[in-house]
Amino acid sequence: MKTRMMAGAALALALTVTGAGSPWAATYMRGNNGNPETLDQHKTSTVVEAHILRDLYEGLVVYDAAAQVVPGVAESWEVSEDGTEYTFTLRNNAKWSNGDPVTAGDFVFSLRRIMTPATGAKYANILYPIKNAEAVNTGDMEPDSLAVEAVDDHTLKITLENPTPFFIELLTHQTGLPMHPPTVEANGADFVQPGIMVSNGAYVLETNILNDKIVLQKNENYHDADNVAIETVNFIPIEDRATCVRAWEAGEIHSCADLPAEDLERLQSEHGDATRVTPYLGTYYYALNHEDEFLSDPEVRRALSMVIDREFLAENIFQGMIPATSFIPPGIGNYETGSPETDYFSMSMLDREDMAIEILEAKGVTPDTPHKLEIMYNSSENHKNVATAIADMWANVGVNVTYNVRDISAHYAHLRDRGDFDVARAGWIGDYSDPQNFLFMVESDNDGFNYSRYENPEYDALMDAAAAETDLTKRSELLSQAEAMFMRDLPFLPLLYYSSLALVSPNLQGWEDNIQHVHLSRYMSITE
Amino acid sequence: MTDAAIAEETPPQGSVQNRSLWATALLRLKRNRAAVASFFVLIFLIIAGGLGPMVSPHSYSEVYPEFVKTRPSLSPYPQAEQIIPAAESALRRARVEVGEIVIEDGTVRIAVSSESEIDPRISRYVDRSDVFSNAEVVDISGDGLSGAITADVQQLYFLMGTDANGRDLFSRTLIALRISLMIGALATAVALVIGVIYGATSGFVGGRVDNLMMRFVDIMDSLPFVFFVILLVVFFGSNLVLMFIAIGATQWLDMSRIVRGQTLSLRRREFVQAAESLGVSSWDIVKRHIIPNTLGNVMVYMTLLIPKVILLESFLSFLGLGVQEPLTSLGVLIAEGAKNMRNAPSMLFYPAATMTVLLFALNFLGDGLRDALDPKDR
Amino acid sequence: MHREEIDILRYALRRLLGAVPTLFLIITAAFFMMRIAPGGPFDQERTLEATVLENLNRTFGLDKPLWQQYAMYLNNLLHGDMGPSFVFRDKRVHEILGEGLPVSMQLGFLALLLALFIGVCMGTVAALRQNSKADYFVVALATFGITVPPFVVAPVLALVFAVFLGWLPAQGWGRADQMVLPVIALALPQVAVIARLTRGAMIEALRSDHVRTAKAYGLPASMVVIKHALRAAVLPAISYLGPAAAALLTGSIVVEQVFNLPGIGRYFVQGALNRDYTMVMGTVVIVAVFVILFNLMVDLLFAVFDPRVRYD
């Protein structure tokens, strides 16, 4: 180690280093797997942005180190009997980085702004449970008719369209973060620039250079500033995951927020505990086109699902992921009933294959008289290898696969425009920890996500009933029934549950693995 | 050469001149050992890519799920220490106790026992595995609770190891070689046809038209063509044929300049002017005199363009826009290998080595050809 | 002499004026090609709600007819505004590219300088000792340099010098030590080409009459090489600068990604894949301007090095 540093120093000297040298000591060098598209909490849509925004701002509620919801700016809250009225009491000592107090009015301003059509908020719909939100967002109502009200400076009342048991969970999303009205009014879209931005979280923005770094400094006005150990956080956007691994191994950064799956095994054996593999709130699936003649047959879909050896995919193709036996990943909130079990997952692969062969033979499909299906996937990561492996499994039962590869925009545009396809790859990471956030995708009126064009009035009725139900246990049962229907009808073939992969330096304390993959810098510290 | 004045009846004149030029060139080329060696290496690679996939023991698309990312080896798979775990994992799902496992002369004998009667169908679990074949349940005891399974052990050779899906890398490298050569040759052919016709026309017609046509080439040249190739690939999907047409369509610019330059100088030569004065049509002159006489330079340029195209294709593969499954190209294999360089170095090494040898041969041959045809050296 | 300078200036001016319609054509072609491509800037892994998508399209003017968008783009461009990025929403395209351009220019310039220096040296040595071991070594090395794709060379360099040896950083830009590996990775293929070009030209120059004469007059060999041969050999190297710039551009896409540099090469590909229309247009404009200027510079350099070239 010493010689290594000496060599580095000598070289640095020889090159007449101009910079200040390595900013290791009090700075958390945090690898982030890409550039934030924006630091405007209303235009945001990606996980990359969430990591930064959660350090900059504090919402009504926040996640703790284990991703449990805990009070943030709101000290406490009350919910009305019918579950549609939330009254939040804001803490007295919450301050903006310029010293102004954080008031209920700031939240009102903020929520109105995200719903204003001109803002162009990608994620506005996540807050549609708020009364009149959708009407405001479509321009049918004025922003001030949004049912969010500042009763006084420290009391905020939000009225919902329907009882929404996951509403508190929703507020942890970065779209619920407040903004400082005077700054936004004075600077317009430029309020996100370093030097202008006023934030109320543990950190303030100092520098933001695309593809280079984003520097955050500790916010001395933050109400819990005494417990914030790390003075400076440098978010390093590294899109290429292999580059992040190299930088981590070279000791240039403390943590990587994602890893290349093909390298996982080596990292685990070389770096042991530093390599973190944690179940994540997401599912990797293939959508089946229900309008296709062959695939419209539920028996066929079942056969296709049965012969996929998901253990093989998880062990050999997408290391770190978990074989999926349902659509909703385990560990999700508000789902005490849990995902229903599907019979064939407990059977051996051979039996499953025999059954599938039988089913397909009855339809006249055998390896000698094969049926042709096209798998459509987007050109990145491991999708090619997954498709190849599944093609091999399906070939055994007489389904021959051809491939159609597009880049990501073309792939999803094709699905959105309801272009023709047989089988299409997709993935879904939950925005909030609730089964509804998965099951709503295949409701028959969901134009955006129901790629399969699944239409089942019974399923829709179950989802509607669940939406109206205030009793969490009963609601969970209804959702479980809906998922059982999902697994029977298979609009999507769930293949794998996502895992979040990370490399965490032993010097970095306080990083707790959690299902949301949320790690606020304020809970962490660095030891030398 | 100045006596090549009679035109109409003398395509022979042109070809005589050509023949002597070619003969000298060939002689010079033969003396260049690097070029000769490259020529043979190239022939070898073309044969390997052309016929190799047919004679290779594995199909390039066959998946061996039990042999994902195996190391290259001259001895057959499964290797001795793999057989027992393979047998155990094959029977793990059969719900039987696995006893002693004996391996002898390419067969294996697995003792099994169970708390309930053994189903003879369990031999299929063993057959299923890529490692075994012809499995049979033998010696079932009277109560049906114990017995043995015998099976032949497969002999699979993976000279270059296997890829991330468990496909033989040797076969894949061969098919990749074929596709890469095809892309190189076809894209170059497209560039050749456009470039030669465009350049010859421009040079021959001359004047304003020439000016305009060359201005167009200049415009095209200042285009960031990588961007256009990427866009073209995005439009057409990763369609193999359209891809090399797209590449070829962006690579003809230099070719047209070379041909134009040559044409301009040829035009002033007596035999062309004679042909013109005899009323030979322009197209015939271009076809008979101009194009054949530019062939030397064009060939050199072509040999050097092929490696460029192959590298360009590999760049597209790096961006994930390369050839589609189950086909593959050297670029695709190398891009995939680069991702796995630390856990399965063979996945990078063999395709990269193949590409290096191929490009070496093409470059040396191109250089040799240029030296051989260079009139300044005569 | 005076007369000649005016000629050169006139020529440069005419070329620059001629570049305007070229640029216009490029912009037009790129604009419409980009729009024909399937998919739009808001088609991501996560499909957007219809109302949300409508709001976005309106915000970015995508709901207007295409010709109107085109006219607006041209108008903005004339006023030095490349429009808002469809993906990076906090900055305008020219701001983003303005941050990245210096990085890419430094990277490209250093790589070119390194490639020229090493390439010319290697080529000269090889030519002076034609058919010796040194010559074969240079030729082989140079050929090897162009046969290995940069996306293999770059990570291998990072792996060896950053991870295994720990001498240099694996990523980033700004400090001198961070520049070493990317510059080498980018320069490597160009070293190869320039070495080959120089070698060929040198051999020819050494055979030429005036070099032989100079030698016959008993001038020291090194003097001869420097004064005559090298000067003649530099010309082909200069004429290669144009294509080299194009190759560096392609190479920088890879190098910037592997070493995580904040240059503009990455926006080029990212933009095309994300359908970030304005970003792609911005990179195309910048690259086209750059290539045009660079080619002009190369031609003018010719005038300095080769007095035979006349501009009329």
Molecular structure report:
- The complex is a heterotrimer of chains A (528), B (378) and C (312).
- Chain A has 528 residues and is α+β, with helices and mostly antiparallel strands.
- Chain A folds into 2 domains: 9-240 and 505-526, D-Maltodextrin-Binding Protein, domain 2; 279-499, Dipeptide-binding Protein, domain 3.
- Chain A contains 16 helices and 19 strands.
- In chain A, strands 11, 12, 13, 14, 15, 16 and 17 form a 7-stranded mixed beta sheet that branches. A 4-stranded mixed beta sheet of chain A has the order 1-10-9-8, covered by helices on one side.
- Chain A is globular.
- Residues 1-25 of chain A have low confidence and may be disordered.
- Chain B is 63% helix and 8% strand.
- In chain B, strand 3 and strand 4 form a beta hairpin.
- Chain B starts with 10 loop residues before the first helix and ends in a 5-residue tail after the last helix.
- A 4-stranded antiparallel beta sheet of chain B has the order 1-2-4-3.
- Chain B is elongated and about 105 Å long.
- Chain B has helices spanning 11-31, 33-55, 80-92, 123-128, 169-205, 207-221, 225-236, 240-250, 253-267, 270-277, 282-318, 330-339, 345-373; strands spanning 97-104, 107-113, 132-138, 146-153.
- Chain B is an alpha+beta fold.
- Chain B is built from 13 helices and 4 strands.
- By secondary structure, chain C is mainly α.
- Chain C has a domain at 107-263: MetI-like fold (Orthogonal Bundle).
- Helices cover 77% and strands 0% of the residues of chain C.
- Chain C has helices spanning 2-36, 50-59, 66-78, 93-128, 133-147, 150-164, 176-207, 209-216, 221-239, 241-258, 265-274, 277-305.
- In chain C, helix 9 (221-239) runs antiparallel to helix 12 (277-305).
- Chain C is globular and about 85 Å long.
- The mean pLDDT of chain C is 83.
- The chains are: A alpha+beta (528), B alpha+beta (378), C mainly alpha (312).
- At the A-B interface, helix 10, helix 12 and strand 15 of A face helix 4 of B.
